Amino acid sequence: MSNVTSKLITKMEQNFLMSFVSLQVIAGATANFVVIFLFATRRELRRKNSDLLILNLALADFTSLTTFLPWNIYLTKLGRKEHSAYYTSLNTFCLFLSSTTVLTVAVDKFIAVVYPLRYTTLVTRTKTLFTILGTWLVATFLGIAHFTVDVFMSQQNHAILDKCLSVAVLIKMIFVVSLYIVVFKAVKNQLTLQRNLNNHKASSQREKQENSFLKSALNTFIVVCLFYATYLPYAVLQMMSIYANFVTWRRLFSFIYVNACINPLVYFFRIRRFRIALFHIFNKGERSDTYVLSRSKVTDR
Question: Do the domain assignments include residue 68?
């Protein structure tokens, strides 16, 4: 280990950070690959527009986990600061790709819950595909802009760009949380209405609907917590120009994409019809799940 590293980080902490990030790469990339594989092989999972947004989220998270994080492991092992425009620009690309994709899922959920009767007209297949294309174009443009400023302009201009990008991340976070607050209140109101219904409905049916609303509310809570826990420290540190040494950035970058590992569990594996498709692959001898999927309710969008 270099002298710089020994002054800033212990061998134990260095090994812990490398092991933790490696676990993210292995577990997170595997989970997102399973999601991508299921979407690619199961046509019925791509029929809904919201499903395409979840697929796009898996692709974005898989990209971050297999490109930026391995580089971060290398720098942690190297034990010294190695400034690279490619490295920082790749982080900008992955950060905005992931956060913008989460934003599209939040907007889709907002429309589905707040405007359920107009959802099919507001969210069409063409609009969804253009939205997905837009997330990649925006992330690519910001990554190229970051690289251009880093290479060809002064350090002052680079600092200004970092602040602007951090402000953009914070604004995006506030907007996402605002949407989910409305979604959470709408779910709560729907749950209250269901409990106040007349007793002509079977109690089992009411219980099933309540469980569906509660699951949606829980997903909302998890998404908001993950979004803030992963992106807020990075955005604040960049925007406030707080001095951060090599170790601080290594610690920060070791946790910034934890949400990319957990997103498949929140957006995919907690949804019943997706689990059915997964079980079908491992139980091909059982009856086809096409009939079961057709009867599954579209309440967990």
Answer: yes
In this prediction the pTM is: 0.76
Distance between CA atoms of residues 131 and 129, nearest Å: 5
CA dist., res. 8 & res. 3, Å (int): 9
In angstroms, the CA 196 to CA 214 distance is 16
Cα 100 vs. chain centroid, distance in angstroms? 9
DSSP-derived 3-state class of residue 123: coil
Residue 245 near residue 261 (C-beta atoms within 8 A): no
Higher pLDDT, 138 or 174: 138
What's the number of domains the chain is made of? 1
For position 131, what pLDDT does the model report?
94
Q: Which two tokens stand for residue 74?
A: 């290398």
Q: Which two tokens stand for residue 191?
A: 């749950």
CB-CB contact of 161 with 191 (8 Å): no
- List of residues 6+ apart from 262 with CB closer than 8 A: 222, 226
Q: For 101-123, what is each residue's pLDDT tens digit? A: 888 888 888 888 888 888 888 99
For residue range 67-89, what is the model confidence (pLDDT) as tens digits? Answer: 988 988 888 887 666 567 788 88
- At residue 299, the pLDDT reads 44
Q: By residue range, what is the domain housing residue 101? A: 3-165+241-295
Six-digit token string for 26: 């292995």
Tokens 């490109």 map to which residue? Answer: 67
Give the type of residue at 162.
D
Q: 91 lies in a domain?
A: yes
Q: Phi-psi bin for 94: left (phi > 0), alpha (psi -120 to 50), beta?
A: alpha
| Any domain includes 177 | no
Report the CATH number at residue 80: 1.20.1070.10
